[in-house]
Amino acid sequence: MPMLKKREDLTDTKDNNTMFALGLSDNFGDIVLVADEDEQDDIDSKIKDVKNMDLDEETKMKVINEYNNLRNAKSFKEKIKYEKNIRNLLKK
Q1: What's the rounded Cα separation, in Å, for the pair 57 and 6?
Q2: What pTM was estimated for this model as a whole?
Q3: Cβ neighbours for 64, distance < 8 A, ≥ 6 positions apart
Q4: Which residues make beta-bridge pairs with 29?
Q5: 34 to each of 11, 38, 89, how far by Cα in Å?
Q6: For 26-40, what is each residue's pLDDT tens digit?
Q7: What's the burial of 89, exposed, middle or buried (CB within 10 Å: 0-12/13-18/19+)?
Q8: d(CA 58, CA 76)
Q9: How far apart are CA 38 and CA 44, in angstroms?
Q10: Number of neighbours of residue 1 by Cβ within 10 angstroms
Q11: CA-wise closest residue to 72 among 39, 28, 29, 25
Q12: Residues near 43 by Cβ (< 8 Å), separated by ≥ 6?
């Protein structure tokens, strides 16, 4: 009967694919999140909308900062995190 490897045994190799599968890394080989031009334009239009909203200046700057972070996101996990932060800021 084959024995299963322990998580510690799998992380000894520091293989990107294994680390990604275990949820310990956002990097999966050579896959990189690349934003297309339409998405960039959409973010720009959302930033303009935020500037016109009736929010205090501190919240506006936080939301705009999160949109800029979203634009520069390197992984899907980061992208989801920034979108969640934006939703939470706009709920306030």
Answers
A1: 50
A2: 0.59
A3: 47, 50, 51
A4: none
A5: 28, 12, 25
A6: 655 555 555 566 677
A7: middle
A8: 27
A9: 10
A10: 2
A11: 39
A12: 67, 70, 71
